[in-house]
Amino acid sequence: MNLLLFPFRSWHNSVIFIGLIPGMAYIPLWIYLITERVIMGSSSVFLNVCFIALGLYQFFTQKNELLMLKSDSEDQIVGYALIIGAVVMYFIFFESYSLQAITWSTALIGVSLATFGNQFIRNYWVSILLIFFGLLPKYLDLGYTLGKVLIPNYALERLMASISGLVLSLMGQPAIVAGNVIQIGSKGVDIADGCSGFSMAMILAGVSLVMGIFYRLRPRKLGLLILLGVVIALVINVPRIILLTYSVVYWGDDAFRFWHTGLGSQLISGAMFTVFYYVSMAICKRENGSKSSLCKL
Asked: What is the pTM of this model?
């Protein structure tokens, strides 16, 4: 409170206040972007809110330990440098939402370092990462970039096309798979990025991470939960591709829009989250015990 009422009483307060200035511009922008994505039906917004809430929850529950941390002169110098550099870069990259989030997050790390010292980074690095990803309006873009680096070009799309084509053949359809295209007769479906299941796999991986931290799963169980989330997303994506193929070949454009971006797509997402819920709860109860209050939602 003293910082807000008397921001220029000392050199330290002045620099800390400067580090908070970008947030005055970014927070309203973040709220606008999140609201816009909610209206568009994006399910990844849930993770933005959960990441920030979990990160702040640790600070709140350990506020007494946090207030005992003190910075030394070296930590303050490094923190001030991060703050000033990040604030300058924030306004240079003002046209990019993601870079605004990254630079202001850097400024917040500088504020924390200058105020609480490097012990803060060591003690609360998980919360720092959660808040960082929560502030990113399009954190899935980082996943896409990482996926492009780790996964060969169109490998996932071809895999999804091959599996879906095999299922269609077992259903009696004369499906022919060529690369990432499923052909039935004279019509075909191109399995592009949006149909590969990668985005939903990223979302379920994020949900798994949030649940694992909330339920305090051990690293092995947390890794298993994340893996199962990815597998569930890819498996559920197969019937979605089949329905899109039927829509293109037999049912027409209205059916395609229904299953691709309309209510049908939300129904498939609902089925995916339902399956994931029961699987994740089984893991949580086995880890924490069936009587654990953490697993009673």
From this structure: 0.72
